[in-house]
Write a structure and sequence with these properties.
The structure is a homodimer. In chain A, about 45% of the residues lie in helices and about 15% in strands. By secondary structure, chain A is α/β, with parallel strands linked by helices. The interface of A and B includes residues 55 and 319 of A.
Amino acid sequence: MTASDMTIPCFDDVTAARSRIEPHIHRTPVLTSTYFNTLTGAELFFKCENFQKAGVFKARGASNAVFGLSDDMAAKGVATHSSGNHGLSLSYAAGKRGIPATVVMPLTAPDAKKDAVRGYGATVVECEPSTSSREAVFADVVAQTGADFIHPYNDPRVIAGQATCSMELHEDAGPLDAVIAPIGGGGMVSGTCLTLSNISPDTKIYAAEPKNADDAYRSLKAGYIIADDAPDTVADGLKVPLKDLTWHFVSTFVTDILLAKEQEIIDAMYLIWQRMKIVVEPSSAVTLAAILNNKEQFAGKRVGVILTGGNVDLKKLPWMQA
Amino acid sequence: MTASDMTIPCFDDVTAARSRIEPHIHRTPVLTSTYFNTLTGAELFFKCENFQKAGVFKARGASNAVFGLSDDMAAKGVATHSSGNHGLSLSYAAGKRGIPATVVMPLTAPDAKKDAVRGYGATVVECEPSTSSREAVFADVVAQTGADFIHPYNDPRVIAGQATCSMELHEDAGPLDAVIAPIGGGGMVSGTCLTLSNISPDTKIYAAEPKNADDAYRSLKAGYIIADDAPDTVADGLKVPLKDLTWHFVSTFVTDILLAKEQEIIDAMYLIWQRMKIVVEPSSAVTLAAILNNKEQFAGKRVGVILTGGNVDLKKLPWMQA
C-alpha cells in the first residue's frame, strides 16, 4: 500500500473539490481551431490548462489537497518531492492559503525551477540526485515539520481535484464522443475517468503517451503495472509510472492508450504554437500527435483534448535543439 | 492626395463593418493577468488579436474592404503590396469570398511568408526589393487585372474594419480609463480613435512605438507627418509611416505616444509568452513595454491593451539571437 491506502475517490469528492478550489483556480477556456479540425477530420475542443494557475492543471489537485486540510493539519504545512509542475502547483496552493510548503528537489534541478517554487513562498530543500537521498531527505523534512505529504498523483484528493477539469470541459463543449489526455503517472487521466464515468459514460477516454515512456501502454496491455526505470522523452512531465490508485482508474475506464514518437510530439507542439498562438509544453502536445497518428479513430467525432500545461523553457525549445 | 482621397470614415461605417465582417472573423477573447496587474499597478485588459483569423487584427480591415465590394468590382479581385500581415490578411479575406487576390512581394521576402499567402489561394507576384520596382510591378498588376488596391492602412474601409476591435474590447472589459495600441502606419490606432471618440470619449488613447522607429512620436510633437527612410526595429510591423487619413485620427485623438527600446520590447514579449502562455509578435509587446516605462501614468487605471498579432517565426525568436 502507498500513502493513498487505496481510498478511491468518488464523484461526491469531485463536486466538493469543485466548490473548494473555485476561488483559487481559473476556469480555463475551451478553444477550437478550423485548421486542426480540417487537419484531423475531427471536431476538436482544446481545454487550455496551460492558462491555469501555476501554468498547469496540477494547480487543481494541489489546491484541493491544501484547502481540504483542517486548520490544525494546515498549520504544519505540506511537503512533496518534485522538480516539476507538482512542486510548483503545491507551492502556489500553499502560498494562497498562507501555510508552509517544502519541496525536496535534486541539487541538479535548474535554478529557474527552484526560483519559481520560492517565488510562491515555499521552501526548497535540496537532495542528491538519487532516489535514496531524496527519500532520506524527504523523511527528514516530514519528521521535523509534521507536514502532510501530498503525492503528485497517487492521492485521492489530488485525483478529485484534477477531475474538475473534465467537468468544465463537458459543460463548455457539450457532449463529447471522446476525450484524450496525456498520461504519465495518470492523475489527469484518472480524474477524467472519475468525472466522465459519472456524468457522460458514453464518452470514450483515451490516454496519449510518448513511445519513449510507454509504460502505461504496456501496463494496460499486460493487465498489471509496469514501471520503467528512467525513461527519456521530451515530454518530461510524463516519465513517471502508474501507481495503485491511478491504475484502478486507467485499467477500468480507459479505452486505449495511443503512442507518439519524439519528433511527432515536437511537430505537434510546434503546430499548436504556430496555429493556435498558445504556449503549451511537450506533454500537452502528445495528445494532438496521438490523434494525428490515429485519424480514422477520431474522424467525424467530437473530441475533447486536454492541453495540460504551458511551463516550458522559452530559451530551450525542442525545435531549436541540434 | 493618396488613394484614400481623404474620405474620413465615420462611426456608421464601423457599425456597418461590424455586421459585414462578423461571419468572417473571430470575436477574440479579452484576457487578464494577476501577474501583470501586480507588475504594473494597473488593471490590464488584453485584447488578443493574436487569436484573430490570419493571426492578426488586419483580418478585420481586409475583410471589411473585400466584403464591401460590389460583385462587379469583386470579380476583378483585389491587390496590395505587403510582405507582412496585410498581404496575409487580404489573401485570407479574398479566399473567403472566393475572389482573386494578388500580393506584390519582394524577391527577398521569406518563402514561408509567400507560402502562407499562397496557402489562402492568393497569387504572389515578385518584384525587386526597391520602391521603384515595387511600384512598377504593382501598377502593372492593377492595369492587367483591374483589381482594387487595398492599402494596408490609409483606406477608410480598412480603418473602419480595425475599429471593430475596440468596440468588442469596450463591451467585454467595461469602461476603460485608457487604451493603448502599437503604432506603425496607424491603422489600428485610427480605428481605436474612431470607435472610442464615439462610444467612450473619456477613454484616453495612447499609442506605443519602438524608439528605433519613432516617426509617429516625432510627427505628433512636430504637428506634421514625418516619414523616416527604412527604420530598423524588431517590431517589424511598425516600420511604416503615417499617411493623411491615419494622421487625421492620430493628431486629433491620441493623448500621447509612448516609446520603448528594442531590448524592452523583447523583454516584454518574453514576459507575455512566459506568464500568459500566448504567442504574440514583437509589435504587440511594444504596448506592455511602453506601460512598464510609464507606470505612474497607468497606475490604478483600467487599461485596455491591444495585442495586435501572433505571426512570428518560431525558429528565430528575438531572445535566441546572439
